[in-house]
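Structure first, sequence second, as always.
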């Protein structure tokens, strides 16, 4: 308890250092994290013994390294020791923190409205455009290797000459999209690829296409007009 008689909001170790919430609360900690903490706990005890035995000047130097805003002259011996141990254990304590789940926010361009923007001749490999609204946007001549356009509204956009190998267009709106001369090797498409405006010169080698869409694409004039496109689907 604190001096007011109420329980402290954060438990304090014997060295005066605040303990982590996971150590002083009922929040479950993964077993693998507990196992990784054991060496750190043991090391902290050893360091405590070493620091206590150090001369005052050495402890003060470690205390300064801890980044404390209080000057060594104003800090008590106990505070100096706690700060010194904190400086030594800082990198280790960062490594054993459990992973924090990230949710509720878009990554890269996910979910954004991109109307009026240009992505021409750029490098956007592995970028996330999932759920983005990109009407009539210029994506031509760019690199989108492994990029994600899942459920994006790309109506009227231009991907001509772009490298979209390994990209995902799952459930994306591809109405009147220009894929002329695009590298679509290993890309993932839904039936919406049927709505693309121009596929002449596009390469579909190893692309994932719905079986029904294959028949429709092979019947298109722009596909039949280019042997490379026709053979990459492949068409009969």
């Amino acid at each position: 308890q604190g001096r007011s008689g109420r329980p402290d909001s954060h438990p304090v170790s014997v060295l005066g250092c605040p303990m982590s919430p996971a150590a002083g609360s009922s929040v479950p900690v993964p077993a693998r994290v507990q196992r990784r903490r054991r060496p750190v706990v043991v090391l902290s005890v050893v360091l405590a013994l070493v620091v206590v035995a150090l001369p005052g000047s050495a402890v003060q130097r470690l205390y300064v390294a801890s980044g404390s805003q209080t000057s060594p002259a104003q800090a008590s011996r106990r505070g100096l020791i706690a700060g010194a141990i904190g400086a030594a254990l800082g990198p280790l304590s960062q490594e054993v923190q459990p992973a924090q789940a990230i949710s509720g926010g878009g990554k890269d361009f996910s979910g954004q409205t991109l109307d009026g923007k240009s992505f021409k001749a750029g490098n956007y490999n592995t970028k996330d455009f999932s759920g983005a609204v990109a009407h009539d946007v210029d994506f031509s001549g760019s690199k989108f290797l492994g990029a994600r356009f899942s459920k994006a509204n790309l109506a009227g956009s231009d991907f001509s000459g772009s490298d979209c190998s390994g990209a995902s267009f799952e459930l994306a709106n591809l109405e009147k999209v220009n894929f002329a001369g695009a590298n679509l090797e290993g890309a993932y498409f839904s039936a919406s690829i049927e709505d693309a405006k121009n596929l002449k010169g596009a390469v579909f080698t190893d692309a994932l296409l719905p079986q029904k869409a294959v028949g429709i694409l092979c019947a298109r004039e722009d596909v039949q007009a280019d042997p490379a496109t026709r053979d990459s689907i492949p068409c009969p």
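Margin note: Residues 31-53 form the longest helix (23 residues).
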